[in-house]
Amino acid sequence: MTADRTLFTPRVYLGGGVMLGVLLVSLLSLPWTLSATSAFYYDGQAGEMVRHGPTWSPAGWFGYDTLGRSILGRCLLGGSISLTVGIAAAVVAVFLGTTVGLLAGYTGGWVDAVLMRVVDVMYGLPYILLVILFKIALETPMTVLFERLQHGQWFSSAQAANLVVMFLSIGLVSWLTMARVVRGQVLALRGLPFIEAARALGMPRRRIFLRHVLPNLVGPITVYATLTVPGAILQESFLSFLGVGVRLPLPTWGSLASDGVAALTPVRFYWWMLLFPCLLLMAALLGLNFLGDGLRDVLDPKKDAGKL
Amino acid sequence: MMRLIAYRLLQLPLILAIIYVITFLLVWVAPGDPFAGERNIDPAVVENLKKTFHADSALGFLTYYPVQILLHGNFGQSMQYKEWTVNDIIRSALPVSVLLGLVAMTIATTVGVFIGTMAAVRRGGVVDWLSLSVALIGISLPSFVMAALLLMLSASGPLQGVFAVGRFDRPIDVLLPGVALALAPMAYIARLTRVSMLDVLSSDFVRTARAKGLGRSPIIWKHCLKNAILPVLSYLGPAAAYTLTGSFVVEKVFNIPGLGQHFVNSVLNRDRTLILGVVLVYSAFVLVFNLLVDLAYGLVDPRIDLGGAQ
């Protein structure tokens, strides 16, 4: 359980490094990629369909898309949006999953039974249906809310609401595994002597909970949180492909890849529109998966099935 | 064993009923109206439509459709495609999706287990690296990209003319979509097999079998695989669910008239009858498949006592 034993295996370094690099570059470039007048965003757009491959100008390293926008700029902006959606969805999932798992595991009895049956039923429902349902249900109230708030200089209120709805609805379907893992861990912890000792000493329930149970859950929670992020990014890319993802013109890696797929014709192959978003997406997902697996090696040595 | 099967089979309708009610509630509270078209329809017409579809009140809906399903196996008319019944839609789409899912699952398990085993046997060798790269691509490349690349291959590459492009004519046309769909579960299965195989290969009975002069391949494929396959088995349930719902993306790329499109479109159209039909069929499939997987546990490893666990 203690982290100092083998913390920071090469895998953690590699995954964390890749992730941090992609995240930093895409976030630092936001002022350029978000401004409509910068060369990164609209260079070469002259009212006609402009497609040309990689060139040796900074904005043109990755080539241009069908509207003459620089793929590099789109990829960087898409990266920060994909990662934001992924991380925020994971935060939602971790919060929900941990709460439900803790409640179910620690309270036991009928609360446990009801909560776990809810998890079972949600597992039985097709997730794509749930995501779209949540999205439909949340869209209107969120848009109204953001129109009230009314201060976006980069995003319009509809776009901001759409982003929030995206990560909320992905998070709302991704917490199930988390809840099961946390519940299992709590059940295992509850039977251990030190918890029993704390109870025998007359420690209040809430204090046992906060001081003794919760700290022991940090390991598995961190691991599954890290592994939820790539899943959420991938789900967003599927939704983008189906046309129900983050609203255009804001790009995500998923929507860029599906644009690339749309530009894939037997007549001419605009390879740069597909290759670069896919490479970035793969690098980020691999980085996150490596990070999660590495952390699992360190924090949760028993569970080594299925790692890369 | 028989008692377990009976128990699980009896549980099945109950779980399906709960899933039905919960899906209905979700669909009912979701904003939007299945009868609101692009044109302005006379409110009286909408009223009438709602009456004919028993959709004017939640109670009316819940007292009509479940009874119909139980008595006649009839899911009712689709609210969006009004001249179709949900049964017709499912009957035409389900076989295609099941075929695609079966092809994908077969490819994923056979190739995945084979690659995983070979990777474990020749640790650090070429196959090991191959399995790692398959796993890397499988977990990090969205299936629609893979599907599109395969579609390109069948349209202009060396495979030109072998498969129909963007159509579904013959059963063999599901092969390429099957490969695209299989990649993610295959990657996972390969790595699962590799990890548990490595464990098994270093156990005592393998050494004993070798010492008694048993050949390499019977040890690996008969003795070790049987012990190493359990984690793969437990993953098959989620994998089946993935291939059934995950297929919507692949079906869209290859233009296959399967069930996947209805998962998305029915929700976007608020087509309540179709949503409920599709969800029930999907859940029934997943539940039965999980039951089969649990039964297979007992066959592969007789030490696992399923009856006692209940």
Structure description:
The complex is a heterodimer of chains A (308) and B (310). With 308 residues, chain A is an all-alpha fold. In chain A, 72% of the residues lie in helices and 0% in strands. Chain A has helices spanning 10-28, 30-34, 39-42, 71-107, 109-124, 127-149, 157-173, 176-190, 193-200, 205-242, 253-262, 271-299. Chain A starts with 9 loop residues before the first helix and ends in a 9-residue tail after the last helix. Chain B has helices at residues 2-29, 43-52, 58-72, 86-121, 126-140, 143-156, 175-201, 204-211, 216-228, 230-254, 260-268, 272-300, 306-309. The radius of gyration of chain B is 24 Å and the shape is globular. With 310 residues, chain B is mainly α. Helices cover 75% and strands 0% of the residues of chain B. Chain B is built from 13 helices and no strands. In chain B, helix 4 (86-121) packs parallel to helix 7, helix 10 crosses helix 11 (260-268) and helix 10 (230-254) runs antiparallel to helix 12 (272-300).
Protein topology:
The complex is a heterodimer of chains A (308) and B (310).
Chain A: H1 10-28, H2 30-34, H3 39-42, H4 71-107, H5 109-124, H6 127-149, H7 157-173, H8 176-190, H9 193-200, H10 205-242, H11 253-262, H12 271-299
Helix pairs in contact in A: 1-4, 1-12, 4-5, 4-7, 4-8, 4-10, 4-11, 4-12, 6-7, 8-10, 9-10, 10-11, 10-12, 11-12
Chain B: H1 2-29, H2 43-52, H3 58-72, H4 86-121, H5 126-140, H6 143-156, H7 175-201, H8 204-211, H9 216-228, H10 230-254, H11 260-268, H12 272-300, H13 306-309
